[in-house]
Design a protein that fits this description.
The protein is mainly alpha-helical. The protein is built from two helices and no strands. It is flat.
Length: 66
Amino acid sequence: MLYGKTNEFLEKAIASHALHNARFGYPMAVMRRSVTNGYWNKLSHLLSLIILELGRPESDRLKWIL
């Protein structure tokens, strides 16, 4: 999750993660805006990623999900 006031250090950290993930073929999802009020943003985002993944055919799902 990275939204709100811009922070160059956090942006650089995200960029380094993106390079690592690209090198090793891992997908990456960064939440760039708030979707709910309060503390539920991260849980809502993770749940949406899991639901999207489970909607794929079993052979195409990420192996670490289940």
